[in-house]
Amino acid sequence: MKLVIAVVQGEDAPRTTSALTEAGISSTRMASSGGFLQQGNVTLIIGIEDSRVQDALRIIRENCRERSRYMTSVPPLAEPGESWMAFPVEVSVGGATVFVLTVDSLEKM
After folding, report:
1. In this structure, what are the phi and psi dihedrals at residue 45, rounded to the nearest 5 degrees?
2. Among 12, 42, 98, 105, which is least packed, fewest CB within 10 Å?
3. What is the pLDDT of residue 109?
4. Domains in the chain, ordered, with CATH?
5. Residue of higher predicted confidence among 52 and 88
6. Cα–Cα distance, 39 to 91 (Å, whole number)
7. Which residues, 6 or more positions from 4, have their beta carbon under 8 angstroms from its beta carbon?
8. Residue 34 Rama label (left phi>0; alpha psi -120 to 50; beta)
9. Average pLDDT value over all residues in the chain
């Protein structure tokens, strides 16, 4: 038995959970935040048989894509009279961070 913990971007979560459900893989969804941009994430917790782990990873990989976004840089604290020109910076967002752990037992009650 394995425990799969997948942290995915909020935009990717609905598509990912739907694809997991269609494949007969149950997941528990928890809202989370963090990372470089403090954007909303979803943590999916999946208890799964060893033989289905690769199926779950494939579905997560297919539905959680890394993509580029342009963000306006935050100006530093400036002294009076100084100026700061804000300019867009390209950053990568999306994708997934996945942990696969061995579980001694799983009980559904």
Report:
1. -115, 125
2. 105
3. 82
4. 2-74+84-102 (3.30.70.120)
5. 52
6. 13
7. 44, 45, 46, 47, 48, 53, 56, 57, 98, 99, 100, 101
8. left
9. 83
